[in-house]
Specification:
single chain; alpha/beta; Rossmann fold; 5-stranded parallel β-sheet
């Protein structure tokens, strides 16, 4: 038995993931912890935990999505409040880990924000992290505490298995997405291709070449996130130019910033499938199919609480 298995399991959330947290609690069968997360008149985050958490195994569900700085501070301050209230263990459940794109120095005088955020979380009092589809797998190594890194690829693949995909091909939109696309291709028993592209500047992608056969096939573009949608739009144009019959897209994190909705509309996807790691704006709902990660997170939380293996979930 885990040292936490006989302790109370309590789940709290910030404002970024309130609906997802409620869905997780409904799946597990426990009430969502009572807390108040608001702001003072000057914009500072104010947190009050309205339950006794002394000796509890606590989980805080909060994506660090837009407004990123506010949501990150909400997470850190909630963790600090729980630590000062004598919670036995605090697990930060971060479905979408923001500030992840600067995970290394590509030129002089650049920060490594993914590491900085990891340091902030540990300093605040996080004992463990549970997250989904990090932008780069090596971010796990930025923490000196346990990190459980889940993936939504199986969830997306399960949805696609309900469709006729025998003439499809899984396409990685860039080199970084190849491992994820390979996993999807194996799950669906499909061939794989990838797009060689370069980024002359942030949020701008230029397709250089397509490796693999896409002509006459329906392409399944798979990425970890959709931000402005510019990369996907460029990929769609290149794939159709190479003779692709149609294009659908799947992504874990619907960031949808800037001109994303315009680019997605212009891409005219056969279907666009995302998950609810980030709340989807009502304006985007008609353009996407949203799958819930509540069961995935709920099962992982119970396994962590009971000291059971997370990797067994993916066998």
């Amino acid at each position: 038995m885990s040292p936490y298995g006989d302790k109370r399991l309590q789940i709290f959330c910030g404002n970024a993931s309130r609906q997802l947290a409620q869905d997780v609690c409904d799946h597990i069968g426990i009430p969502l912890g009572k807390s108040e997360v608001s702001t003072f008149s000057d914009g500072e985050v104010k947190v009050i935990i309205n339950e006794n958490v002394r000796g509890s195994d606590t989980f805080v569900i909060q994506s660090t999505c837009a407004p990123t700085n506010n949501n990150l501070m909400e997470l850190l301050i909630m963790v600090d409040a729980l630590r000062r209230a004598s919670a036995d263990r605090i697990t930060a459940v971060v479905p979408f880990y923001g500030y992840a794109r600067q995970d290394r120095k590509t030129r002089g005088r650049e920060p490594i924000t993914a590491k900085l955020v990891a340091n902030l979380m540990v300093t605040a009092g996080v004992d463990r992290v549970l997250t989904i589809d990090l932008h780069a797998n090596q971010i796990q190594g930025f923490f000196d505490i346990p990190v459980d890194h889940l993936t939504a690829v199986r969830l997306l693949a399960q949805y696609l298995k309900g469709k006729d995909v025998k003439d499809h091909v899984v396409v990685a939109p860039d080199a970084g997405a190849i491992p994820r696309a390979r996993d999807m291709a194996e799950l669906l028993n499909l061939p794989m291709a990838f797009i060689d592209k370069r980024r002359p500047e942030p949020n701008v992608a230029e397709v250089m070449n397509i490796v693999g056969k896409v002509g006459g096939r329906t392409c399944i573009l798979l990425d970890d996130m959709i931000d402005t949608g510019g990369s996907l739009l460029s990929a769609v144009k290149a794939l159709r130019k190479m003779g692709a019959k149609d294009v659908m897209a799947c992504a874990t994190h619907p960031v949808f910033s800037g001109s994303a909705l315009e680019n997605i509309s212009q891409a005219k996807f056969l279907e666009l499938v995302v998950t609810d790691t980030i709340p989807v704006d009502d304006r985007a709902r008609p353009l996407v199919k949203v799958l819930s990660v509540a069961h995935l997170l709920g099962d992982a939380i119970v396994r962590i609480h009971e000291g059971r293996s997370i990797s067994e979930m993916f066998r």
